[in-house]
Amino acid sequence: METGNHTFSVSEFLLLGLSEQQEQQPLLFGIFLSMYLVTVVGNLVISLAIGSDPHLHTPMYFFLANFSLTDLGLSSTTVPRMLVNIQAHTQTIPYAGCLSQIYFFLWFIGLDVFLLAVMAYDRLVAICHPLHYTLVMSPRCCVLLVVMSLLLAHSYSLTHTVLLAQLSFCADNTIPHFFCELLPLLKLSCSDTYANQCVLTYWGGALTILIPLLIVISYVRIVATIVRVPSASGKWKAFSTCSSHLSAICLFYASAVGVYFVPSSADSASKDRIAAVMYAVVTPMLNPFIYSLRNKDMKDAVGRLLSRRPLQSP
To answer: What element of type H or E holds 13?
Structure first.
């Protein structure tokens, strides 16, 4: 670092990780390596099963394949770096590497949120307007929805990253986290963060209030349609196509609420780390199980992929 007028040109940050106790590092390495391998295998299997099974070449599974790849990217943004730091007995990350990690982390988080909204819209059209489903959710429309999600997520992450790059950092370069996250870095800055806070409020409102509100409205309409189905089997069949998506939404937003809406306490840094593990590591690991265990078509496709059994003609 170089000093000038009490402002430091930071070349690296110090990540405290999940624990500063050296004797716990081998255990943490084993746990997170196992979780990451399960995440990689689970999400790749879901994507490959959907891609290899013509029965699953539908809008719902197209969005699910993209969602699985997004979860894989989200976990890969944080966990490998943490594992390398534990193995190398170092806690530092270069300034450029920190900004890159923030960009990709926010990009995958934003993409997760937008894809969850797109998947809710897909279920809304499928259940409330089944006769128009193939017309509305055409292949072109599905691709456009995913591209729009990619661009919005890119705008979200790039805006934060560019604004963050304009800030100066003073003597303290210690991040009480296992990866570079936006809020701890803003607290470290000795520059005026008003613009960052405004953008954070704007995008935070969109991702944590507006998008969930749209999802809730979609499911209110879905439930209203399902209760009008005359047969119990018809109601169950309609609800079963939404149950996995609802579980993923609840898991994702419950962990996000733990970071941004639970009041701070004396142990808020520890709370933030635990919540970040939930939405950045645990959620991407569990989503493949959520979407495969409750879905017969998905289980059959995974079984055929793993056993390399060919599709049987109807």
So the answer is: strand 12-15
Run of H or E including 2: strand 2-4
Helix 283-293 vs helix 59-88: crossing angle, to nearest 10: 150
Domain that holds residue 176: 13-307
pLDDT, tens digit (0-9, with 9 covering 90-100), for 191-226: 889 999 999 888 888 888 899 999 999 999 999 999
- Give the predicted TM-score (pTM) of the model: 0.89
Residue 6 lies in a domain: no
- Is residue 312 one of the residues assigned to a domain? no
CATH number at residue 236: 1.20.1070.10
Going by C-beta distance under 8 Å and a sequence separation of 6 or more, which residues neighbour residue 134?
none
Q: How many C-beta atoms surround the C-beta of residue 242 within 10 A?
A: 21
- The whole-number average pLDDT for the span 71-75 is 95
Q: What is the pLDDT of residues 161-192, one digit of tens each?
A: 999 999 988 878 889 889 998 888 998 888 88
Q: Quickly list H helices, the chain.
A: 25-52, 59-88, 95-128, 133-136, 139-165, 182-188, 194-205, 211-226, 232-260, 268-277, 283-293, 296-307
Instruction: Provide the pLDDT for residue 298.
Output: 86
| pLDDT band with cut points at 50, 70 and 90 for residue 4 | very low
Task: Please indicate, yes or no, if residue 314 is contained in any of the structural domains.
Answer: no
Q: Return the residue matching tokens 């004396």.
A: 266
Residue 305 pLDDT class (50, 70, 90 cuts): confident
Residue 8 lies in a domain: no
Residue 243, Cβ neighbours under 10 Å: how many? 13
Could you give the number of structural domains in the chain?
A: 1
Per the CB < 8 A criterion, the answer to whether 49 and 301 are in contact is yes
Q: Are 253 and 207 in contact (CB under 8 A)?
A: no
Q: What is the largest CA-CA distance in the chain?
A: 76
